[in-house]
Amino acid sequence: MSEGADDDGGAGAAARSPGGSPGGDGFAPSALGTREHWDAVYERELQTFQEYGDTGEIWFGEESMTRLIRWMQKHKIPLDASVLDIGTGNGVFLVELAKFGFSNITGIDYSPSAIQLSGNIIEKEGLSNIKLKVEDFLNPSAKLSGFHICIDKGTFDAISLNPDNAIEKRKQYVKSLSRVLKVKGFFLITSCNWTKEELLNEFSEGFELFEELWTPRFSFGGRSGNSVAALVFQKT
């Protein structure tokens, strides 16, 4: 579920409902929050890869991958630590992790076409130590557990746009995260829809902020801010 834009923007920042905030139901529902949308996206991406070898774009750009890997290196995360990429999309981030030497990495996505695309790209890269699974993170299988690191680049954003009770789905996401992540494990999230303060509120139960990662700032009309939030939480 995590593919498809340039630089440090996601697939498109969500529109806020008038007077709303994401703490309630402040995001306008969007097709970006539906499985049907992402199935269609990855069916097209898979066909494009099979015909032209194009792996597709990277949600939040290459810098977002570099930012996360640098953090893992800075904090000396063992290369054999179990890493889960939530909503892996085309699996390009998994490839980067493997190239940096990480050897216990898993990518999940609820779109079978995304997992097929990821598998094809990983095979083309000549990598064999990456696990791929078709999984709905809101209803994960019992085997999906015990991870030292969980990474999300845009999946929580997409879930927040689901037209069918997004608030409840966000709560279920946090419950699933708590179940699959080890105690003292780290959760690295990159979002273009949520601010730091909002993410702190969303993940207030069972997690604490470990570090805020640097992201590019913008200035417009005398105001400045970040177009992307990138935070590291630790499970308590």
TrEMBL record:
Keyword Transferase: yes
Residue span(s) of domain Methyltransferase: 81-214
One Pfam family hit: Methyltransf_31
GO CC annotations, alphabetized: cytosol; nucleoplasm
GO molecular function list: protein-lysine N-methyltransferase activity
Chain residue ranges for the region called Disordered: 1-30
Cited CDD domains: AdoMet_MTases (cd02440)
InterPro entries: Efm4/METTL10, Methyltranfer_dom, SAM-dependent_MTases_sf
Domain of life: Eukaryota
GO biological process: methylation
SUPFAM superfamilies named in the record: S-adenosyl-L-methionine-dependent methyltransferases
Gene3D superfamilies tied to this protein: Vaccinia Virus protein VP39
Keywords from the UniProt entry: Cytoplasm, Methyltransferase, Nucleus, S-adenosyl-L-methionine, Transferase
Subcellular location: Cytoplasm; Nucleus
EC number: 2.1.1.-
Role, per record: Protein-lysine methyltransferase that selectively catalyzes the trimethylation of EEF1A at 'Lys-318'.
Family: Belongs to the class I-like SAM-binding methyltransferase superfamily. EFM4 family.
Protein name listed in UniProt: EEF1A lysine methyltransferase 2
